[in-house]
Specification:
The complex is a heterodimer of chains A (210) and B (365).
Chain A lengths: L1 H11 L1 E10 L6 H10 L12 E9 L3 E10 L9 H5 L4 E7 L3 H17 L5 E7 L11 H11 L2 E4 L8 H11 L33
Parallel strand pairs in A: 1-3, 1-4, 4-5, 5-6
Antiparallel strand pairs in A: 2-3
Chain B lengths: L35 H26 E2 L2 E5 L4 H7 L7 H9 L1 H7 L3 H7 L5 H14 L15 H17 L9 H12 L2 H15 L9 H17 L1 H10 L3 H10 L8 H14 L2 H13 L1 H5 L4 H7 L7 H4 L1 H12 L4 H28 L1
Antiparallel strand pairs in B: 1-2
Helix pairs in contact in B: 2-13, 3-9, 3-13, 4-9, 6-7, 7-8, 7-9, 8-9, 10-11, 10-12, 10-19, 13-14, 13-18, 14-18
The chains are: A alpha/beta (210), B mainly alpha (365).
The structure holds guanosine-5'-triphosphate (GTP) and magnesium ion (MG).
Family (chain A): Belongs to the small GTPase superfamily. Rab family.
Catalytic activity (chain A): GTP + H2O = GDP + phosphate + H(+)
Organism (chain A): Phallusia mammillata
């Protein structure tokens, strides 16, 4: 593993690590998206997240390896007061709503607004309309969300943690859009030599973008 | 619940070693990384401890060994720290926490709360939030599995709804579902669980679950200050890495160590919690932090530190609950109650002040 990492490192040059936070109403599927992205799994009954969960995953782009440090937060309204701790210094955010629930879309918009005002100025924000597999229960138009994202300069995809649709894609799109030169502005250590860092337990290592 | 739990109970039949079930005595599925070998080693010793404790409880604390009530003597504190025998846990928790008194004082309250139908938007929102979480509470526990646990889920639902009506200003906060579910697993009596939950939230714990979670945020700042005093070297690293304890420890306090530590260890912590109050939550936090001192000092950035606190459920030291609690008290002494009270007051005020400033800033825009 270490050797492979070293080779990758040499072949691909740059390694960047980015802090990414997931925000959105409870039960929209934040944890499920992360679980799909990091472990390739889906649980019909996913435990509600308390506080926040931390996971890492690495993806490879053309010439860069991007390591995501992911904060999956709790969605209930009152946990909002803890959220700034988690998005502070984040270079990327995925704001998630559930396409079968209009209220969660409204909530997503307030998260976007809050991020635009309070988070790092260059934060890359993606909007994920999750549970796209439940198209017959759809309550939020694709066009409406796309137009809103366009206006606000957000990446936008409809996703399904259940079928895996667009899950890797949305993380990859974020990785593409993140500035690789500085590797993020607020990090004390934007670039690390991955050969020296322990591969975290959950991660399948480099280039595990299925 | 008693009706459905036909699984082998590791505790009562546990004399046979080498036949550890994939499901523990409380109905939780053992994880893939569960170390059967070291658990067996631990359990063979712990069973002897439990037998001895049972004998001592019967002799010294219980009325003629009749598990009806605890004779309140000074030794009960020590006895709770050494672990309440599983069979007596429901009764002892009810007694030492004051829940039984509350229940006796208002014997009809629980049923009244349940049958009242406030028909307010607030009550409906609480019901919806609880409903969303019913299938997401211990989905891997046989007592709460979706297919088979209708009855337990109904009880869980009832208790949470009743609590929301009992304290509408709190309503329902995620995390309460796990606490209530574990109470149900141990106590197996809906109404008693309601009273234990109320006594926990209303008197034992600070107001963690309130709408702004002010006391919870303050609690983590209190923890920071205590770590700074007791283990300045650790706090220095955390400060220089820019990691607030909130990122590591918020769930510790919200869930009272459920899903953080092995289940037996959690119950041993709760034995102390119900008798002597919430200070034990700090003791455990400090002990866990101190135990990671080397890792923290040698760490390579934030992810390392966060990860190092993630696998405590299968950590050998945490698994050996008897030793764990013993060492925990020794390591964290002294920890004066008055000091904690002072720090809590101070940090609640600071958090409230911050919130006020933030709100004013928002309004100004
Ligand atoms: N059909 C369908 N169900 C999904 C999808 N994603 C998640 N779910 C289900 O929705 C429920 C909630 O998912 P979670 O991932 O726990 O939601 P969350 O946003 O993390 O919720 P909190 O932790 O409470 O904030 C779970 O029961 C999932 O199985 C999806 O893409 N399709
Ligand atoms: Mg979640």
């Amino acid at each position: 593993m270490a050797a492979q990492r070293a080779t990758n490192n040499a072949a691909q040059g740059k390694i960047c690590q980015f802090k990414l936070v997931l925000l959105g109403e409870s039960a929209v599927g934040k944890s499920s998206l992360v679980l799909r992205f990091v472990k390739g799994q889906f649980h019909e009954y996913q435990e509600s997240t308390i506080g926040a969960a931390f996971l890492t995953q690495t993806v490879c782009l053309q010439d860069t390896t991007v390591k995501f440090e992911i904060w999956d937060t709790a969605g209930q309204e009152r946990y909002h007061s803890l959220a700034p701790m988690y998005y502070r210094g984040a270079q990327a955010a995925i704001v998630v709503y559930d396409i079968t629930n209009q209220d969660t879309f409204a909530r997503a918009k307030t998260w976007v607004r809050e991020l635009q005002r309070q988070a790092s100025p260059n934060i890359v924000i993606a909007l994920a309309g999750n549970k796209a597999d439940l198209a017959n229960k759809r309550m939020v138009d694709h066009e409406e969300a796309a137009a809103y994202s366009e206006e606000n300069g957000l990446l936008f995809m409809e996703t399904s943690a259940k079928t895996a649709m667009h899950v890797n894609e949305i993380f990859l799109a974020i990785a593409e859009k993140l500035p690789k030169n500085e590797g993020g502005t607020n990090r004390p250590r934007p670039e690390v030599d991955i050969t020296q860092s322990n591969p975290p337990g959950g991660s399948k290592g480099c280039c595990s973008s299925h | 619940m008693a009706g459905t739990s036909k699984t082998s109970n590791g505790r009562t039949t546990g004399a046979t070693i080498g036949t550890l079930s994939k499901i523990d005595a409380y109905g939780f599925k053992r994880g893939e990384d569960f170390d059967y070998k070291s658990y067996e080693n631990f359990e063979s010793e712990y069973l002897a401890v439990l037998a001895r404790r049972m004998k001592r409880w019967n002799e010294k604390v219980l009325d003629n060994g009749q598990a009806k009530s605890v004779k309140h003597r000074r030794m009960v504190k020590r006895f709770c720290r050494k672990g309440i025998p599983e069979r007596h846990r429901p009764m002892v928790w009810m007694d030492v926490s004051g829940a039984r008194k509350k229940m006796q004082k208002e014997p009809e309250k629980y049923q009244k709360l349940l049958s009242s139908d406030p028909d307010t938007l607030e009550d409906r929102l609480v019901q919806d939030a609880i409903n969303t979480d019913l299938d997401r509470t211990f989905p891997d526990n046989i007592h709460f599995q979706v297919a088979t646990a209708e009855n337990q889920k109904k009880q869980l639902n009832n208790i949470l709804i009743a609590y929301g009506r009992h304290r509408p200003e709190i309503g329902y906060c995620q995390g309460m579902n796990y606490i209530t579910a574990l109470l149900l697993i141990v106590v197996k009596d809906e109404e008693k669980c309601f009273w234990l939950l109320s006594v926990l939230i209303d008197t034992i714990l600070p107001q963690y679950y309130s709408k702004m979670m002010t006391a919870l945020r303050a609690e983590l700042n209190v923890l920071t200050e205590i770590v700074g005093t007791k283990y300045p070297n650790i706090q220095r690293v955390m400060d220089s890495e820019g990691i607030p304890w909130m990122l590591v420890a918020s769930k510790w306090f919200i869930c009272l160590y459920i899903d953080i530590l092995p289940i037996e260890t959690v119950l041993r912590i709760w034995d102390c919690l119900f008798y002597e109050g919430s200070k034990v939550l700090f003791r455990v936090a400090l002990f866990l932090i101190k135990d990671k001192e080397t890792v923290i000092k040698e760490c390579n950035g934030m992810p390392d530190i966060i990860e190092s606190f993630k696998n405590l459920k299968t950590d050998d030291r945490a698994l050996e609950c008897h030793q764990f609690i013993h060492d925990c008290f020794i390591e964290t002494n002294p920890l004066p109650k008055a000091e904690i009270k002072k720090l809590r007051t101070k940090h609640v005020a600071l958090v409230e002040e911050e919130d006020r400033k933030l709100a004013a800033k928002r309004e100004a825009r």
